[in-house]
Amino acid sequence: MTVQLPSMSAGVAAVTQVANSTVGLLIMLALAICAPLFLYPVFLAMLLCFMLFACGFNLVFGFANMLSFGHAAFFGWAAYTAGYVLTSLGWPTALGVIAGALAGGAIGLVIGLISIRREGIYFAMITLALAQMMYFIADQSQFTGGENGLQGIPRGELLGLDLSNDLVLYYVVLAVFVAAYAAIARIVRSPFGQILNAIKENEPRALSLGYEAKHFKLLAFTLSAMFAGLAGAMKSVVLGFATLTDVHWATSGVVLLMTLIGGKGTLIGPIVGAIIMVTIDNYIGSAGHLLAGITGLDVFNQLGRSATIVTGVIFIFCVLALRGGIVMNIQAVLNRVSKKRPSTL
Amino acid sequence: MSISEIPFQAIASQLLLGLVNGSFYAILSLGLALIFGLLNVANFAHGAFYMLGAFATWIGATYFGLGYWTMLLFAPAVIGGLGFCIERTMLKPLYKLDHLYGMMLTFGLTLLLEGALRLFYGVSGQPYNVPNALSGGIDLGFMILPKYRAWIVVISVIVCFSTWFAIERTKLGSHLRAAIENPRLVGAFGINVPLMRSLIFSFGAALAAFAGVLAAPVVQISPLMGSTLVIVIFAVVVIGGMGSIIGAIVTGLALGLIEGIARVIYPPGSAMVVYAAMILVLLVKPAGLFGRET
């Protein structure tokens, strides 16, 4: 054991270094910058919003092991807030997005204050119930547009850049995403992030060391809600609408699945997960038609209508067989490969 | 508008409606609390089992000519069996892990079950008639009491208290309570705790399906009818706490009644009552009304 352990941890460290290294990040950034050459910019901008949503969610789920089932409330209410101040009050786009992020954070603070009184499954159930309450309020309020939601939210402009140009919009959203991602990475690696990790691993011990666990959890939860809010507010600018779907519990489930499938507690896991889930959601219908064309089976034509089933199956599969997420599993495979090599390192 | 201006009949009928909803809350939260107690799983699929119960009733009548009374026994049996299989194949491997995975798995199951029924039947509600023996109402003088609603309340209370009796007053129940308290020790005494877990999950699913059959004639039977309800049930369970079976029953009935009262005083607020009560309880007594401090 003592012989194996160093090589294993060296392997993990090596892979983690590559994944987190500047080179890796630069490659990803280059890909993101070139992506509009191949894909529709509005789709990509929406994808970035969901990536940010998942990264924000991962801050509590992955790094503090608090399963929030209520993140749709922050995402959706931020979308409504941004939509409302941009449409009805005519605020500039930047202010609208900031207002949305702050609204998400504020709701997160209140929901956090109530739900952090319990832990584990109870915490999950309480966040779910409180988010459902926020759903009802959104459903019955005047300013959210009820069943219809808010439509035709103007994109406006930012620092003289015309956001109605899809390409400009994409690069602005990319810039915001990169900044937010850097902030999340900084938070995770900061002393605050270390304390969160300590609480996650052993809460009584962290308490005995003098860290008021509840305060740290609440701060993490509020920050996470704020990032979710930023994502929601940008989403309503990108797509031009905010609807009840954004606040629905299913949205909380989708962001959970994104994080789970990619890899909870890893920085890039939620990004991978968001790409997979948004792609499935958007292309499942055409993929089904394609399969039906190839195989001649009519069943595949129904695939577009069964996105919920596919999501459910992936969920079950992830919980049963892929709990570490894709990123962790790739790392594990790489480790196995590196372990087989003669230990020259 | 003060309460005195509202006709007594309206109040009485809203209270009855509240009691009917409360009956569903009680049956569902009872099953959820049992599963939670022994398996440590916050069973999100509980709403899906309830929905399947109602759908089974409708499918039985539409395709197989099976009546209400047959389905009242048959649907819980089938869905209980389904629950047994789910526990054996999917939940069992998760017990040694973080309990959150159980909730995530049942969430995925809910999406799968709902999605499957949506594919076949869409989201519009299917109607189901009240069985002949229970149609019509009884004139109480001050109001007409619909027989079917009275039946829901009576049978729910009977089922809930029989369950309570079975758990609190029988040999099997004492094993069960012991297994909740300390599964390893009970296992060491030669009691088959894994089988007990499977049976409890199966029984909880059957209870949810039973509530679904009861609800079939009074709701629109739709694939989405369960998931919204299960969130309310989660809140009920948080309010009641996990200390006792009786807690789940009483809290369920009481919240139904309070909702009924809210519908008289301020109708738009009735959907909020359960959540408001949950917030209040969390602030005052975080362990829940009947819960024990841990």
Task: Please give a structural write-up.
The complex is a heterodimer of chains A (345) and B (294). Chain A starts with a helix and ends in a 5-residue tail after the last helix. Chain A is built from 15 helices and 2 strands. The longest helix of chain A has 27 residues, at 213-239. Chain A has 345 residues and is an all-alpha fold. Chain A is 74% helix and 1% strand. Chain A has a two-stranded antiparallel ribbon. Chain B has 294 residues and is mainly alpha-helical. Chain B is built from 11 helices and 2 strands, in the order ααααββααααααα. A two-stranded antiparallel ribbon of chain B has the order 1-2. The N and C termini of chain B lie far apart (44 Å). The chains are: A mainly alpha (345), B mainly alpha (294). At the A-B interface, helix 6, helix 12 and helix 14 of A face helix 4, helix 9 and helix 11 of B.
In short:
The complex is a heterodimer of chains A (345) and B (294). Chain A has 345 residues and is mainly α.
Search tags:
heterodimer; A: 345 residues; mainly alpha; globular; disordered N terminus; B: 294 residues; two-stranded antiparallel sheet; 11 helices; 71% helix
Largest interface: A-B, 44 and 45 residues
In one word, what is the shape of chain B?
globular
Count of individual beta strands of chain A:
2
Give the oligomeric state of the chains in this entry, treating copies of one chain as homo and distinct chains as hetero: heterodimer
Strand order of the largest sheet of chain B: 1-2
Give, in order, the helices and strands of chain B. HHHHEEHHHHHHH
Topology:
The complex is a heterodimer of chains A (345) and B (294).
Chain A: H1 4-20, H2 22-34, H3 41-61, H4 71-87, H5 93-115, H6 120-140, E1 157-158, E2 161-162, H7 166-189, H8 191-201, H9 203-208, H10 213-239, H11 244-247, H12 249-262, H13 269-295, H14 307-321, H15 325-340
Antiparallel strand pairs in A: 1-2
Helix pairs in contact in A: 1-15, 3-7, 3-10, 3-12, 3-13, 4-5, 4-6, 4-10, 5-6, 5-10, 7-8, 8-10, 12-13, 12-14, 12-15
Chain B: H1 8-39, H2 46-63, H3 68-91, H4 100-121, E1 137-139, E2 144-146, H5 147-169, H6 171-181, H7 183-188, H8 193-215, H9 225-240, H10 245-265, H11 273-284
Antiparallel strand pairs in B: 1-2
Helix pairs in contact in B: 1-5, 1-8, 1-9, 1-10, 2-3, 2-4, 2-8, 2-9, 3-8, 5-6, 9-10, 9-11
